[in-house]
Amino acid sequence: MMPFLLAEFANRETILPLYVTCVGSHEQKQLNRRNGYPAHQLFLCRGGSGVFRIEDQRDLVMTPGTVLLLPSGVPHAYYPNRSGEAWDLGFVAFGGKAAIPILELLERISMTVVEIPNFEALWDQLASLWHAISLNGEHAYWETSKQMYDMAVSLLEGITPSKKTVNGPSTVAQPNSALDAAIRLIHDHYNERLLLANVARAVGYSVQHFHRLFVASYGMTPQQYILQLRMRRSVQLFQDTPGIPVEKVAQQLGMETSYFIRIFKRTYGATPKQYMKK
């Protein structure tokens, strides 16, 4: 889970044509916005299912692998589809002068639920936005603007039918397919001892080239990404299992306890026990 983050960037409205206002993911509960939301919102459903109720429109059901784009100011409410079922919903809100033409290009997913083939890549981009803001604060406004644009392009790619040649589908790999594979590998093995050389080799890059590409795409090193992923998972473990010992959480993350506590405090400004008391 990616805890909700507000992106409070000074003068972003006058500087950036596209900017992020908030980003995150969590187990979504019922929420009612009778006056809509002041920014445009993109929702990604990764687990469970939920219902969006938009004024003067039929109810929309989101299931895993689907996205929904909601323009600003549209009254709406949303809630889990089934009582007791966890609804894993990711979201990013954005604005700026460039947002309007982007919304026009993405009209197909505006106020409707669409299943999208490159969902995992979009989810990784959502996580990258969260990390950029979490790690860099106000200094991230340039980077998150570029990443938000990249995410919009990925959305457009996902909803655009692929063209086939006379000889059949194109087999040319997408530019970021190796990085996508690396991210999946990291997410599958984040609690193990992951060597950068092994990850780079698995996706066909040298260590130096992979490191440069990763930093350019995600705004952080692979090691920083793994640590942030472990920290997010630790918070989820503390929330899902009240009273779980710190030592057990560290063990499940593949970290030595004292090192885990030190990284957790550096990330959240409090020790695990202090954080959970809050």
Short description:
The protein has helices at 12-15, 99-105, 119-136, 141-159, 177-189, 196-202, 207-218, 222-240, 246-252, 257-268, 272-277; strands at 2-6, 19-27, 31-33, 40-47, 50-54, 60-62, 66-70, 76-80, 88-95, 113-115, 164-165, 168-169.
Which regions are unreliable across 5 or more consecutive residues at pLDDT < 50? Answer: 163-175
Beta-strand segment tally: 12
Largest sheet, in brief, is: 6 strands, antiparallel
Radius of gyration: 19 Å
Fraction in beta strands: 15-25%
**Count of discrete domains:** 2
CATH architecture of the largest domain: Sandwich
Keywords: DNA-binding, Transcription, Transcription regulation
Organism: Cohnella endophytica
InterPro entries: AraC-bd, Homeodomain-like_sf, HTH-like, HTH_AraC
GO molecular function: DNA-binding transcription factor activity; sequence-specific DNA binding
Your description of this structure?
Keywords: DNA-binding, Transcription, Transcription regulation. This is AraC family transcriptional regulator. Residues 180-278 form the HTH araC/xylS-type domain. One of its GO terms (molecular function) is sequence-specific DNA binding. Pfam families: AraC_binding, HTH_18. The chain has 278 residues and is of the alpha+beta class. It has two domains: 2-159, Jelly Rolls; 173-278, Orthogonal Bundle (Arc Repressor Mutant, subunit A). The protein has eleven helices and twelve strands. The chain has helices at residues 12-15, 99-105, 119-136, 141-159, 177-189, 196-202, 207-218, 222-240, 246-252, 257-268, 272-277; strands at residues 2-6, 19-27, 31-33, 40-47, 50-54, 60-62, 66-70, 76-80, 88-95, 113-115, 164-165, 168-169. The strands form three sheets. It has a six-stranded antiparallel sheet. A hairpin with a 5-residue loop joins β5 and β6 (60-62). α3 runs antiparallel to α4 (141-159) and α6 (196-202) packs across α7. The chain is globular and about 55 Å long. Residues 163-175 have low confidence and may be disordered.
